[in-house]
Amino acid sequence: MSRSEWVEISPTLVDPRALMAVRDMVDRVAPELGLGQVDVRYVARADMVPANERATPTVFTSSGPDLHGSAIYTGAGGPGWPPRPTIYLVAGAFKPNDVLHEVRHLWQSHTGFDGDQAAREADAHAWAGQRIKTLPGPWRPPRS
Ligand SMILES: [Zn+2]
After folding, report:
1. What pLDDT, on the 0 to 100 scale, is given for residue 72?
2. What is the 86 CA–ligand 1 centroid distance (Å)?
3. Domain that includes residue 55, residue range
């Protein structure tokens, strides 16, 4: 499988309604999880972003092109690390569940969640799936 490089982009390149909705969602759930301020940053595949629109050099790499988001929990990681717990969302690709999923990963790191990668993913998936049901407004999934 090929690796993909992701770069941070300016939030001005993201739909402002999505920016507001994500901020609202993160600010609702972060306190519930005992997290303080959570930063939200946006990334795009490096080969999709002109050099002059990149906010940073490569932020991270992934094993494939179908990433929706990522989470970095750090407060004392040193140079090159975000100063606060941060979720990275792939501009134009993330869904509401992905936002919750990534915040849950921050909680897992915050609390020392005991589990392997599969357990972490299962917990984040399950929590996001439950929490999304009780969010108000545009984040509530349509009834089927
Ligand atoms: Zn995950």
Report:
1. 77
2. 14
3. 4-137
